[in-house]
Records
---
Amino acid sequence: MIPNTNYKNLKDSYLFYHIAQKTKAYLEQHPGAYLYRMGIGDVSLPLCDAVIQALHKAVDDQAVKASFHGYMPECGDPELRRTIAGYYKKRNADLSPEEVFISSGASDELGDILDLFGRDKKVMIMEPAYPAYVDANIIAGNTIIHIPSGEAEGFVPQPGERDRADVIYICSPNNPTGAVFSRERLKQWVDYANRTDAVLLFDAAYEAFIEDEDIPHSIFEIEGAKTCAIEICSLSKTAGFTGTRLGYTVIPRELERNGMRLNEMWIRNRTTKTNGVSYIIQKGGAAVFTEEGQKQVRERIQVYKKNAKVLMEALDRLGIWYCGGKNAPYIWMRCPGGMGSWEFFDYLLQEIQVVGTPGEGFGACGEGYFRFSTFGSPEDTKEAAERLVKLLG
Amino acid sequence: MIPNTNYKNLKDSYLFYHIAQKTKAYLEQHPGAYLYRMGIGDVSLPLCDAVIQALHKAVDDQAVKASFHGYMPECGDPELRRTIAGYYKKRNADLSPEEVFISSGASDELGDILDLFGRDKKVMIMEPAYPAYVDANIIAGNTIIHIPSGEAEGFVPQPGERDRADVIYICSPNNPTGAVFSRERLKQWVDYANRTDAVLLFDAAYEAFIEDEDIPHSIFEIEGAKTCAIEICSLSKTAGFTGTRLGYTVIPRELERNGMRLNEMWIRNRTTKTNGVSYIIQKGGAAVFTEEGQKQVRERIQVYKKNAKVLMEALDRLGIWYCGGKNAPYIWMRCPGGMGSWEFFDYLLQEIQVVGTPGEGFGACGEGYFRFSTFGSPEDTKEAAERLVKLLG
């Protein structure tokens, strides 16, 4: 048996693994040192009260025969699917509950969804990009069309004369750049996808961080998206579910290719390859969408937004170019003095014990840039910002 | 874009969906009727106290910053991996924690694991079989070598002169037949797999139901398995986790094909395509392996075993051939009077409101057989057994 040889085409190691190794080595050389971790996009605030209460109640349900839940529907708790369809309605995206699928999170779903597309697909990835987009497609044996972007276009590429792709990834608000796609730019991509028969995979994991009223939260706010787009979303950043795990995926009924309805295919996929998402976690997730839950998760997001402001002010003082931070929990800065991004990583780690993420890890055009996550504690973020100003000022 | 056309090769509809449709139609025609549901293998007893307490504690951890957990390690909580490696040690299977991967359950993992094998594989499935084995491989575009089995061999096939397969599924204790593979039979398959360079996918989801001391709980009790086998297990049936979702997968370090270590490939797969399993659920799962947890889950298993006994006694009285029930939560009976399995399904539903699973749904050689799950309530099982005796006696 010859295993999946595509694994041999994966690059040496995963970005965050590399960062973990480097910080580990630093701590071994400097025992007791304190690190200001703004590398991995993991949240630091605990779950909100509404979610905690719902989780406890769901655990209690599982303790008693009368309220015990066994297998959940594979595509998600119908009530939660309805709730999320209602959440979209507030954004002027008209979806039915049957178009919403509950998942264990966006990263799980971004990998699994490739099952819909079959073999030898051409996949367009706008870079800098979340490395798992690339790696999941390498494992699947797809061909990747890398679309580099840069400062000139604010890291928001537009469609143009390009190789025709089967699948196009868009992440807005973007990881890692924090850049957002405007309504007009998204419309261009929707039209492009419809014209070229491609499917857009829209990663909306950071939608809850959008401040500007005219920036779409969902691809389904754009006319024509229902015939070309799948949206993948998550409560990881919206509600601090990185370690709790819940997400959702929208596949419109109208999305057809070659006479096959992708919504129906996904139902078949889920009923074959999963037994649904944990009852307890789905109940916790449902609490996010209550009035109380929405209020509480927004309070937490404000904490992260204040972190972003502190960092943005520091970069403004230093006169360093950056984007993101306003509608996204990431800030993407140009490394000062023409430094390479891993060079800048080592410099910050050694000199001021601040850990960020080297832009190169998100694709070649990320070289010379650096990502800060704003999910740390306010105290650490403030201290890191002060150290940055002192070091680079 | 042409989607994955393999979906077109899937048969019309999924077995349990069909059953749900038929029972729904019955209830619409007979409002208020009570059904004795012994079809789907879903548990009916709530989670045990040790698990409930651990879940509550984990929820509390997520409520406070000092104990909050974000992203979990993609391959599982190291402590839980150690605990499960220890559980295997009691079965004389010597595994390291790094060979144990935590999953969201066996059905999820049985689908995902195909990612390791790449394209155009020949996959041997012993039938009757869990329908998802077949469907997941159809979606992946693999060729299926169906190995039918029957009463003569007690529904436990042996390797022989067969087409060479890349992957071989074994489920023991078996779903749907409840038959168990003896140590000698498993050794034959391990030797066969090593000789023919195949990988065994061993589904051990029902291991906790084994009574006979000489029946292996794990493929890794068999010499030579580490160079040919992957084991997929779950707490669904062991501890009533069907709606809570936790499982584990063992991929030995020694398992290599074509110079590629499958353990390393799976680490890369999980770090790319997941962000780990819910902290809360992993903590609940860990409680299953404590002394208290083991005692409590065994008490629950005894309840189901009593159900099995009640049904077996009824079939004995009726003089109907069956297997399973002793080391497995399923009983596999021959339909009386030469009835077809869907015919018998309709007969039981209409006459005595008992719902089972038609054997034909597990492969052509299941035609004429019928599966009872023993996961129902003792009251329902007793009543169903009495109705069976009355109807068929």
---
Amino acid sequence: MKTLIIVSHPELMESHTQRFLWESLPEQDVTWHHLEAVYPDGVIDVTAEQRLLKGHGRIVFQFPLYWYSSPPLLKAWQDAVLTEGFAYGRFGSQLVGKELQLVVATGVPEKDYQAGGLEQFTLPELMRPFQATAIKCQMQYFPLFVISQFDYMSEQERRKLLIQYRQVLTGRLWGTLEEKEAWFEEELTTLGKVHLSEDDCLQVDLLIQQLQTNREHLNDLNWTLQEMRE
Amino acid sequence: MKTLIIVSHPELMESHTQRFLWESLPEQDVTWHHLEAVYPDGVIDVTAEQRLLKGHGRIVFQFPLYWYSSPPLLKAWQDAVLTEGFAYGRFGSQLVGKELQLVVATGVPEKDYQAGGLEQFTLPELMRPFQATAIKCQMQYFPLFVISQFDYMSEQERRKLLIQYRQVLTGRLWGTLEEKEAWFEEELTTLGKVHLSEDDCLQVDLLIQQLQTNREHLNDLNWTLQEMRE
């Protein structure tokens, strides 16, 4: 499935978070679409946008949280592109079944977003307008992916973020353990070795072997459990 | 207290609702500020806007509901005008104590906005980003004023809307019965008679008298009740 990342950020070049995400992109099946760069005058090409949507199964809205919502150009995009007859209406939605994923960057810690916290409301609550949009367009709404205080992240946290972001782009962050293992194996087999030394390649091969061995061991345990129950 | 109505509507002239509201405005203490008319190119004069805010005690955001939120220019206004140091931050907010009122026009019935309803979420829920903004700016957030399906309203419903809207603009819709009576008396005494015939003026005077008599009667009843309790 192809992923369309609709990025809305008025000052993308100055955002460390967005640059990091851009550099983390998989090599294929992903379209990066930065609205402020494509439409500097704010006039949106509705036909082109609707064609883009039709060509992708997974739609990502990626933006920094300004005043508890997206920057204005993403809202302008919604109002212009999600027309009656295309996104909703008597004859159904042409977006039916597509996946909608929000990737939201915040400057304050995620724990501030809760009743009694500094921001009082949770992020899923504040994103209701997007959830309602997904429902209206008969799209499948995914759990938020929140990136908080990127600038304060350690190198290790950033590496974890990179992996999670790549999983988010393919909708694999919320799979079963088995699906996650398959994702890791795939990533390690195809992309992981491109720029690696011979030694590191060997390490990767060992890691894949270890993953497979663990999975076989788990399968055996499950099998034994099932037999005991019967 | 002066009221600033910040209207965001990309096609104001074609909206029956907005025209009706514009024609219902009180003669004084109200500033009508239509963002799309003032800033057709979308570039907002931050200093002018902040000065406007400082000169008014009650701020109204008035807009049609597009994709469960405001049109994009109001969001652009928030992002541009509510700067750190002015609206929030270490040195407090210059908007502290001001009232924030949302006047939202919808094309579908208000009852559709609830769990299990067509739109799944309530309007107060969908307006959380504005409520969170009010909290951050230390403003007092008022209950939503929703205008649903204006085009289907009867003449009588519109008259009721006119009265409620004028009460909303002065923050009097949510007062006690006594405060509401005082509001009616004031309106009838000052504004109501400007364009009336002599006969109608007499009617208005009788109405004011009746209101006062009713109030005296109610006060007497309350007094008797209190005595009986003692």
